[in-house]
Amino acid sequence: MDNVLAVVVAAGQSRRMGENVNKMLLHVAGRPVLSYSLAALQEAPFVKGFVLVAGERELETYVTLAEQWGCTKMISLVKGGKTRQDSVWEGLNALPADTRVIIVHDGARPLVTVNQLDQVVSEALRWNAAALAVPVKDTVKETGMGNFVSRTLNRESLWLAQTPQAFSYSLLMDAHRKARRDQRTATDDAGLVEAMGVPVKIIEGSYRNIKVTTPEDLSMIEYFLQHRDRHSCC
Fold it and tell me: 169-182 and 84-92 helices cross at what angle (nearest 10)?
């Protein structure tokens, strides 16, 4: 798997964590949240390098921390944009032109594993686009005016998207270019690829692959990290 690189998105504003809080730097099980994702990419033998996308205020901090964490695979640190989509675009443009497969991962998902990275890359090589997701457990209601239920969705075909996601580099670049040209937005990169009519292969992930969004998430992640050796999928 030659020329596999990654973009790690770590430029979010952490609004739901409280004011002036960078969730990437919050400690969980003794280490900053972001360090776990970068460690997985460091460990993955098939990942050639990665670009880290950060907020302007964190650029200098991340340079220092990346050195402390031994991130020898970090090829660039770039400033993010106004939205996640803009930040991924900035990261993509910092990659070498000969990149074959690109992994996009949210730095706020510290429980990503090397095996999950391997799975999405392998499927992206086969299908051009692949994403981790987990089946919806609960019954899902769609509402209309006044929050009255308009219909109940069939959860058998519903999945909750996660990262990492992996794509042919040229495909994802085309998807982002088209989205910018058409002024289209999506909450993940798979959505931009889907909008081009390209199928995205879903790989069943783990419910432990939590994204840090609220303070309660940190407690759950710390528990899973402390019991990591007991769960091979963590």
Answer: 130
Per-residue confidence (pLDDT) for residue 147, from 0 to 100: 96
Q: Which residue has 């090829």 as its token pair?
A: 75
Inter-CA distances, 23 with 20, 106, 142, Å: 10, 12, 31
Please check whether residue 103 is in contact with residue 207, taking contact to mean a CB–CB distance below 8 angstroms.
no
Residue partners of 214: CB distance under 8 A and separation at least 6:
16, 17
Answer for the pair 84, 187: CB distance below 8 angstroms, yes or no.
yes
φ and ψ at residue 6, rounded to 5 degrees = -135, 155
Record the tokens describing residue 110, joined without a space: 């510290």
Tally Cβ neighbours within 10 Å of residue 179.
20
Domains and CATH numbers, the chain: 4-230 (3.90.550.10)
Distance CA 11, CA 22 (A): 9
**Successive 10-residue mean pLDDT values, the chain, 234 residues:** 92 62 89 96 97 94 92 96 96 96 97 98 98 97 96 96 98 98 97 98 97 92 79 37
Q: Compute CA 16 distance to the chain's CA centroid, rounded to the nearest angstrom.
A: 18
Q: Taking a C-beta distance cutoff of 8 angstroms, is the pair 91, 107 a contact?
A: no
Q: In this structure, what token pair is assigned to residue 156?
A: 């058998």
Q: What's the rounded Cα separation, in Å, for the pair 37 and 187?
A: 20
Beta carbons of 166 and 123 less than 8 angstroms apart: yes
pLDDT value of position 227? 79
- Tell me the backbone φ, ψ of residue 233, rounded to 5 degrees: -85, 0
Q: Note the pTM of the prediction, 2 decimals.
A: 0.93
